[in-house]
User: Which sequence fits this backbone?
């Protein structure tokens, strides 16, 4: 059984990126996967303070006492990581960026193999009808570069132009695409399909 960890970073309720995340979850559960969803907006996660304490030992995570301490074991146990974010000012939301910065602690003592071999998918929503002008390319490249370094394979990126709360529900193709990502990654045997 595949273990999914879905990280959703929109601060608003009925968020379009969160709705796409729920579609991935439905697809994964239909394949028998174990799924846990984390909404960053409900957590207290401080930004990285560059103290480097996490780099002193491979067994030491971040020294900050906040909700991130509960997320490190979940990240490590997951087979599949799903990241859902609205595009804010040409990049991922601040909540997502702070979370990602704090995952630096998983490379303790310069050992950057903690996430190697995991699969990942990205879900982005944005207001501009042109994805090349929305910032989705910037957001995707950030994940692509970081995960290339860490040995994480991004298998899918679903992105949808929508602005009003819940608007993505009207986009049947994107709703189905997100569900298909969950179904594909939830299978015992993974097949990689690039978008």
Assistant:
């Amino acid at each position: 059984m595949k273990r999914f960890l879905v990280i959703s970073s929109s601060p608003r309720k009925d968020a379009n990126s969160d709705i796409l995340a729920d579609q991935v979850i439905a697809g994964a559960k239909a394949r028998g996967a174990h799924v846990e969803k984390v909404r960053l907006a409900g957590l207290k996660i401080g930004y990285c303070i560059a103290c480097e304490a996490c780099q002193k030992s491979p067994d030491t995570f971040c020294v900050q006492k906040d909700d991130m301490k509960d997320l490190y074991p979940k990240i490590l146990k997951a087979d599949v990581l799903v990241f859902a974010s609205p595009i804010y000012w040409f990049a991922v939301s601040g909540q997502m960026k702070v979370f990602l910065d704090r995952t630096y602690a998983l490379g303790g003592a310069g050992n950057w193999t903690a996430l190697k071999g995991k699969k990942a998918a990205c879900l982005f929503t944005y207001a501009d009808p042109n994805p090349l002008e929305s910032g989705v390319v910037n957001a995707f490249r950030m994940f692509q570069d970081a995960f290339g370094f860490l040995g994480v394979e991004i298998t899918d990126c679903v992105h949808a132009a929508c602005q009003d709360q819940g608007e993505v529900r009207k986009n049947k193709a994107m709703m189905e695409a997100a569900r298909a990502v969950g179904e594909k990654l939830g299978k015992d045997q993974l097949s990689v399909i690039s978008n």
Notes: The chain has six helices and six strands. The longest strand covers residues 80-88.
